[in-house]
Design goal:
Blueprint: H1 2-10, H2 16-31, H3 36-46, H4 52-70
Helix pairs in contact: 1-2
């Protein structure tokens, strides 16, 4: 995903003002699988007893990205 973002910026298909946000999202996606135990512990500490908490975080992240594009 990160390589795709970089290629889109190089080909001028992705605007530079959004490139930083997408690079941060790509780095997050690169390291997110390494943090599954921490996310499971966080979800249990917050009272969520299913793996849907990770999907909920992803949904909120997508909502924030869409809000950024709307503004």
């Amino acid at each position: 995903m990160l390589l795709t973002i970089i290629q889109l910026v190089r080909r001028k298909q992705l605007d530079e003002k959004y490139a930083f946000l997408w690079v941060i999202a790509g780095i997050f996606m690169l390291f997110a699988p390494l943090a599954t135990r921490a996310l499971d512990a966080l979800s249990l500490a917050l009272g969520f007893h299913n793996p849907g908490f990770i999907l909920l975080l992803g949904f909120f992240a997508i909502c924030l990205i869409n809000l950024q594009f709307s503004v």
